[in-house]
Write a structure and sequence with these properties.
Layout (H helix, E strand, L loop, with lengths): L1 H21 L3 E10 L3 H9 L1 H7 L7 E2 L2 E8 L3 E8 L2 E13 L2 E11 L4 H29 L2 H5 L4 E4 L4 E9 L5 H17 L9 E6 L5 E8 L11 E4 L5 E8 L2 H17 L9 E4 L13 E7 L2
Antiparallel strand pairs: 1-6, 2-3, 3-4, 4-5, 5-6, 7-12, 8-10, 8-11, 9-10, 9-13, 12-14, 13-14
């Protein structure tokens, strides 16, 4: 019996020593994700609280595996997140780190203070490892979400090539944002001019509307054609570099949705550090004069880049 008691005491002493030797006073908690996405776009997504519920892995927002997460601070590349587990609170930092122009990592770090009591010290270590496991699971879901461009910009954006070269265009000024009928009037005048010159339309009509400060708007419409047409007071030939690089996206909706799409296209260009030799424009897939329901309008938007 005495030997058994001595063995138990020695075993307990060994385990206690192991706890102190193997579990440091400050327990590091780390989770990492690598993203093939630009940092500014990821930052915009995370800055908007309504976006978190689109990718959060738990059934309840900011709750995962019996832990509660609270975003306490947002800076350009840093988010302070407190993690609550029963009686314990862990202060963590989620940092966005630039790797290249189009790639980045997310580093999520925290520290858990251990305890002098060996049993509480082991309990804190177990909690830290469980927290680290949860943080990695959360980052895996965020990583999968952000790998899709439509989750950053609201729709899929493709980098493609210019197919049309020769255009015929016309411009008109308005004291208001031009409506579908006014745009259609410009398009019909272009179609008539194309027929008069025995040319062939090669694609749907194009549109760009410029704000002129307080003086109104200027609309430019154009139609791709099979040859160069002569310039007049009303019509002007335009040219695009066939085979040049261009951003393309297709969206459905009216003027508000289209304007939002053009802004996101500009965000994409800026995020990926592209320059542009020309203005963005709309390609009117839907004949808006014949479809009064703007929610059904299909529009392709383009932005030449290099």
């Amino acid at each position: 019996m005495k030997r058994i008691l001595i063995g138990l005491v020695l075993s307990l002493a060994f385990l206690t020593a192991a706890v102190y030797l193997l579990i440091p006073r400050k327990i590091k908690i780390e989770a990492t994700a690598f993203l093939d996405a630009p940092l500014p776009g990821v930052f915009r997504v995370l800055m908007n609280d309504s976006n978190w519920k689109k990718w959060w892995p738990g059934e309840t927002l900011f709750v995962y595996n019996k832990q509660i997460y609270s975003v306490k601070g947002k800076f350009f590349n840093l988010f302070g997140i407190d993690i609550y587990s029963d009686r314990d609170t862990i202060h963590s930092r989620m940092e966005l780190v630039l790797v290249t122009a189009n790639t980045m990592t997310i580093l999520w770090n925290a520290e858990q203070l251990s305890n002098n009591d060996p049993f509480k010290r082991f309990e804190r270590y177990w909690l830290a490892k469980q927290t680290e496991k949860n943080m990695n699971a959360i980052l895996r879901r965020l990583e999968a979400f952000l790998q899709k461009k439509e989750n950053i910009y609201g729709f899929d954006i493709k980098e493609t090539l210019v197919k049309d070269s020769a255009l015929i265009s016309t411009r008109r000024k308005f004291d208001h944002y031009p409506g579908a009928k006014e745009v259609d009037s410009m398009i019909q005048s272009l179609k008539k001019y194309i027929m008069q010159n025995n040319a062939v339309e090669k694609n749907s009509p194009m549109l760009n509307v410029f704000a002129l400060g307080n003086s109104g708007y200027e609309a430019m419409t154009a139609i791709p054609v099979d040859k160069e047409l002569p310039k007049t007071n009303e019509f002007a030939p335009k040219f695009m570099l066939k085979g040049g690089n261009i951003l393309e996206a297709q969206i459905q909706g009216g003027p508000y949705t289209i304007e939002k799409g053009l802004k996101e296209l500009e965000n994409y260009r800026a995020d990926y550090k592209f320059n542009s030799p020309a203005i963005p424009y709309q390609l009117l897939v839907t004949d808006r004069a014949k479809e009064p329901d703007t929610a059904k309008w299909i529009t392709k938007i383009y932005y030449p880049i290099y």
